[in-house]
């Protein structure tokens, strides 16, 4: 079973919320750098096994990509993307403790020029980003499993306003609850890790 992902509402608590989880950048220019994580059980980092598989799959698309990291937690996925050659990452998160850790990580790694942090509800922020004309090659979302936040975000992304042609959307979810296809998004690959699965969508099929 894969360790708990970024938001504790997704799975049953694992009883280890007293101390922060130790997380490091796995590969790329920042390999080995330590990342701050929020105390408590509100958010948890995406497991190393899942991050590694995600980045290995995205390898051909990462160089110079503009990435959108939704439900970002402390930023482990987006920061990993920057370490491996992404040009810029926009993070969206609403939990105050996760945001504090995210901002600390960006500052510690000296990545302010290559990042933007949007604070608040993901769907509302997607609307704002679309209104600003932002477009992304890669979007990753790791929503709380116990809510409909993931479906709402995918529905908003399915409109296509935030994606370049053939842009990729990757959703992390419970294996037994595979997300639907929304609007322009067409699923083309799944990577399963026990109870957790990554589903890859391409804009336009």
Report on this structure.
By secondary structure, the chain is α/β, with parallel strands linked by helices. The chain has a single domain, classed as Rossmann fold. Helix content is 25%, strand content 27%. The chain has a 7-stranded mixed sheet with strand order 5-4-3-6-7-9-8, with helices on both faces. The radius of gyration is 15 Å and the shape is globular. It starts with 22 loop residues before the first strand and ends with a strand. Residues 1-5 and 8-19 have low confidence and may be disordered.
Briefly characterize the structure.
Helices cover 25% and strands 27% of the residues. With 205 residues, it is α/β, with parallel strands linked by helices. It has a single domain, classed as Rossmann fold, CATH 3.40.50.150.
């Amino acid at each position: 079973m894969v360790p708990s992902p970024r938001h504790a509402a997704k799975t049953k608590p694992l009883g280890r919320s007293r101390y922060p989880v130790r997380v490091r950048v796995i590969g790329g220019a920042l390999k080995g750098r330590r990342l701050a994580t929020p105390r408590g059980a509100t958010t948890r980092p995406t497991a190393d096994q899942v991050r590694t598989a995600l980045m290995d799959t995205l390898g051909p698309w990462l160089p110079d990509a503009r990435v959108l990291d939704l439900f970002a937690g402390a930023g482990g996925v987006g920061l990993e993307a920057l370490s491996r050659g992404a040009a810029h990452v926009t993070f969206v998160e609403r939990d105050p403790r996760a945001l504090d850790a995210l901002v600390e990580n960006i500052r510690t790694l000296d990545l302010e020029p290559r990042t933007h942090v949007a604070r608040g509800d993901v769907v509302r922020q997607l609307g704002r980003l679309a209104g600003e004309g932002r477009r992304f090659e890669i979007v990753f979302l790791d929503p709380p499993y116990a809510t409909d936040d993931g479906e709402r975000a995918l529905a908003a992304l399915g409109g296509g306003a935030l994606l370049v042609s053939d842009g990729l959307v990757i959703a992390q979810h419970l294996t037994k609850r595979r997300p639907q296809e929304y609007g322009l998004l067409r699923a083309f690959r799944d990577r399963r890790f026990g109870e957790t699965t990554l589903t890859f969508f391409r804009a336009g099929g």
